[in-house]
Amino acid sequence: MIKVIVVDDQNIVRAGFAALLNSQPDITVVGEAGDGREAVVLAERTRPDVVVMDIRMPGMDGIEATRRMLAQPCHEAMRVLVLTTFDVDEYVYEALAVGASGFLLKDATAEELVSAVRVVARGDSLLAPQVTGRLIREFTRQRRTRPQAPAELATLTARETEVLVLIAGGLSNGEIARRLVVSEHTVKTHVARVFTKLAVRDRAQAVMLAYESGLVTPGANPENSQP
Predict the structure, then answer these.
(1) What Rg value do the Cα atoms of the chain yield, rounded?
(2) pTM
(3) What does residue 181 show for φ and ψ, rounded to 5 degrees?
(4) Which residues have C-beta within 8 Å of that of residue 213, sequence separation ≥ 6?
(5) CATH number for the 139-224 domain, one of 3.10.450.40, 1.10.3210.10, 1.10.10.10, 1.20.1300.10?
(6) Which of 51, 54, 121, 220 could form a disulfide with 2 if both were Cys (CB 3.0 to 4.6 A apart)?
């Protein structure tokens, strides 16, 4: 069972999400919270697998709540799925920067919400990495900062760098395997090593690092890039 807590300051929205998720045979909602501070306490008590987190809330918002939750060693395996009204939202960018595994629009269908919870629960980023890539390209372009490649990038092998570029292009492990003509198991090994060397939690953070470091440039198509 995937244990979930739902965090939203609107009672009707929160109850609706909780009822929908509880109706699934493989998902159980272990708690609900109306603000970020309450969510942090609830997560500590219930140890959920996934937190469905609204970003904009009075008091402690979803970004700060996500930061505090994921800073705790006991939440190393927990994933945060943030909810937003707009698909290009600087708050979403900040949420990804503090460790959220992806985002979902509040007007998503019931099927999309259920699928999103399952996706992040198994350690993937949501939903289509291309959407996360578009968000990151937009804000790295707006900030216009000079890319500074972290020293950890230099520790990647040529093949691991290639895999990182393809991750930033939105390719799944299976697609990367076909692109590189290797087994999917080999790709999973490369991805795991990339995450470990770069100290990122998941694909969403890996995509952000690829753009912010300048490995992939805003406006380019990373899927067709060569590292």
Answers:
(1) 17
(2) 0.73
(3) 60, 55
(4) 147, 148, 149, 150, 153
(5) 1.10.10.10
(6) 121
